[in-house]
Design brief:
The chain has 17 helices and 23 strands. It has 694 residues and is α+β, with helices and mostly antiparallel strands. The relative contact order is 0.04. It binds adenosine-5'-diphosphate.
Length: 694
């Protein structure tokens, strides 16, 4: 049964299509037509997606799109859609499906010449009555909708095409405009630009900045060769010419050059190759670089100076630290020196209040450190120092000077002791007196020794006086009878003729003589010890004295049948001595040489010698006598000492000869040296300072 209202709606819809209505409104209207069908539930349009093979829900009369989508999925799953499309393609009819959704579904494929573009799913309820005419009407309406959709697509494509055409026209207008604007822009930018024909290097276009930089007009530049306008900045740049941006010198119209940086770009147009060279003036940049370089050098210089200053400061600081450490060490040293000083040390303030005492102070006085601190040194006062001495002490200190004295102090236990004291002001860096320092040495023992020494000296002087008077007496008492004996024995020697008596008298004479010699030596030694200080020295010619001495001893040498020789290399050799003492000293040594030599010779030599930076007269007495063993050479200068001592002595003498000679030579600030070998002989050398007129 044909539903008239649906028929009318279909006819109206196709007849009243208006241009005013939009595509989507048209679809919506087209779908609402199905509402006229008796038993209508909903109608939904699915269209083929342009980018996949799927269909999407374009529009529906139902607002519950989820149910529609579920229905669609169900139909796909049951292949109902595929079946209905196949049927419609072969028969051109639509299919009613009884599905498990409990409704009738009418699937209406939308087919155009190019194929299936979508389908309509029409839901109907039980009131729907199956009717071929209705289905035909549905089919016509869906065909109409398909055509409408196709037309709409074609139209929109046409619209698009039209749009593109307009744009092309518009774009070509734009290109002309843009080219003009581009030229304007190129002229307004600060970068110089040249367009060059690559083949000929000919400039074919320039912008305003370029012609300004060159100083040439645009048309003066066009047609010239680009190579004439630039030179490489230096060889390095030429070598690196492969670089894209290079520094060049640009030759201006006035012949001057400016530094520029230039970049080349290549392009082709109408089969021609072109170069676009763009460049900028880097004069300012160069100046800045130079300024920067100068600043950098200056900075480096300053840094260097500062580093130098810092290292100086550092060095000074290190020196200061070293000095300070040294000062601290010195201070510590001083502290320990004071602390351990063998003298008592007291430091007081300006009012005499004790601030420091060292351990020696406590040891001497018996006052402990704590007992002494804050006390006045008068706790040590013995009361023996007179008020004048105290006044003198304070006057000296207030005068800023050191006061020294020896006096007695009193210990804590009341005992008195002697001190040698020095009290002096202590000054600060600014020379102000801040303290007083007392250094006191306990000299009680020394005083005692001194007293003993004085007593001993007095005793010695007494003994000396006694000895002198004894010697004087001896001299008188022994010499007087001895002279008598010698005198009488000499008379007897002349008187007596009997040979045996002559020998006796000779013995008396020689023994007496020997005794007198010993006595003379003893007296002489004592005499030397007494006179040495106030002796008067004169200039003496050693040569002359030795000649005398030689003559005196020649006789004795002849008697002993020994050769006595005098070897003198010069006529004058001056020394400053007391003549008799000198002769005594030399005489003793020549005596010994003759005495201790039995055969051979004795040679006496005198010459000048330089030794230890001094000039000397050296008298050498060489003999071929018995010699002296090394171990005996030291003792022979001691009084009464001899190599052969006691009763075994073979030689006469009392051991005083060398002692006297040594003492005399000492008085003249000379020296006696020995070289000797037992049985071979000895050499005694007497060194005396040479006299010089100044
Ligand atoms: P003396 O009167 O005994 O000679 P000296 O003081 O002159 O006393 O000499 C001390 C000792 O030195 C001598 O006893 C002797 O032993 C030794 N003496 C001195 N001169 C010589 C010498 N030329 N040769 C060997 N011995 C010597």
């Amino acid at each position: 049964m044909l539903q008239n209202s649906f028929y009318d709606a279909v006819v109206n819809f196709s007849a009243n299509k208006s241009d005013e209505i939009t595509y989507d409104e048209m679809i919506s209207d087209g779908l609402s037509i199905f509402k006229k069908i008796h038993g209508f539930v909903s109608v939904s349009l699915f269209l083929k997606s342009s980018d996949s093979a799927d269909y999407y829900l374009k529009d529906s009369t139902s607002i519950d799109h989820d149910i529609i989508q579920t229905t669609y999925n169900e139909l796909i799953k049951n292949k109902e859609i595929a079946k209905s499309i196949n049927d419609s393609e072969s028969t051109g009819s639509v299919q009613i499906v009884n599905n498990n959704l409990n409704s009738f579904i009418l699937i209406l494929p939308l087919i155009i010449q190019t194929g299936l573009m979508g389908f309509i799913i029409l839901k109907l309820d039980n009131n729907y009555s199956d009717d071929e005419k209705l289905k035909d009407l549905c089919k016509i309406h869906s065909k109409y909708l398909a055509l409408f959709l196709m037309n709409s697509n074609l139209y929109s494509e046409l619209e698009n095409l039209k749009m593109t055409d307009n744009k092309i026209v518009h774009y070509s207008k734009d290109i002309v405009q843009s080219t003009k604007e581009l030229k304007k822009i190129l002229d307004s930018i600060q970068v110089g630009i040249l367009v060059i024909d690559k083949k000929s290097d000919e400039i074919i276009d320039v912008n305003r900045s370029a012609s300004k930089l060159f100083g040439f007009g645009k048309y003066e530049l066009i047609g010239t060769n680009v190579q004439d306008h630039f030179i490489y900045k230096d060889d390095e740049e030429r070598l690196n010419s492969s670089k894209n941006s290079k520094e060049f010198l640009l030759k201006k119209n006035d012949g001057t050059f400016i530094p520029i940086i230039k970049t080349d770009a290549y392009f082709n147009a109408s089969d021609e190759e072109y170069i676009i060279e763009s460049f900028i003036d880097i004069t300012e940049r160069k100046k800045m670089e130079e300024a920067l370089h100068t600043a950098q050098i200056e900075l480096e210089h300053r840094v260097e100076e500062r580093t130098h200053e810092l290292s100086e400061v550092n060095k000074n600081l290190q020196n200061e630290i070293v000095d300070r450490i040294k000062a601290e060490k010195d201070l510590l040293k001083i502290y320990w020196a004071v602390h351990q000083s063998p003298a008592a040390i007291i430091i007081t303030d300006l009012y005499g209040k004790i601030e420091y005492v060292n351990p020696k102070f406590s040891e001497i006085t018996g006052y402990k450190y704590q007992e002494a601190i804050n006390q006045n040194p008068r706790i040590l006062k013995s009361g023996e120092l007179s008020s004048e001495e105290y006044k003198n002490l304070w006057d000296t200190l207030l005068d800023g000077k050191e006061w020294r004295s020896e006096f007695r102090n009193r210990k804590k236990n009341g005992e008195l002791y002697w001190v040698s004291a020095s009290i002096s002001p202590v000054r600060s860096d600014n020379k102000d007196v801040t303290h007083y320092l007392a250094v006191q040495e306990d000299i009680t023992e020394r005083k005692r020794y001194l007293e003993e020494l004085i007593i001993a000296k007095q005793q010695a002087e007494n003994s000396d006086r006694i000895k002198s008077s004894l010697l004087a007496n001896m001299s008188h008492e022994i010499r007087t009878p001895l002279i008598g004996i010698l005198g009488y024995s000499q008379i007897l020697m002349n008187e007596i003729k009997e040979a045996d008596l002559v020998s006796l008298v000779n013995d008396i004479y020689s023994s007496g003589n020997r005794l007198l010699k010993t006595l003379n030596n003893i007296l002489y030694l004592s005499h030397i010890e007494n006179i040495s200080i106030e002796m008067e020295l004169t200039k003496v010619n050693v040569i002359e004295e030795l000649e005398h001495c030689f003559l005196e001893n020649k006789k004795y040498a002849n008697e002993k049948e020994i050769t006595l020789e005098l070897i003198l290399k010069r006529k004058e050799l001056y020394i400053k001595v007391e003549k008799d003492l000198f002769n005594q000293a030399i005489g003793n040594i020549i005596d010994n040489a003759l005495k201790y030599t039995d055969k051979g010779y004795v040679i006496v030599e005198a010459d000048y010698a330089s030794h230890h930076g001094k000039n000397w007269a050296v008298i050498k007495v060489k003999d071929t006598g018995i010699g002296i063993a090394k171990e005996d050479q030291g003792k022979i200068f001691d009084a009464f000492r001899q190599v052969s001592e006691g009763y075994s002595r073979n030689f006469d003498g009392c051991g005083l000869g060398l002692t006297i000679s040594q003492k005399i030579v000492d008085i003249f600030r000379g020296e006696i040296t020995i070289e000797s070998q037992p049985t071979k002989g000895s050499t005694f050398s007497i060194w005396l300072p040479l006299f010089t007129s100044n």
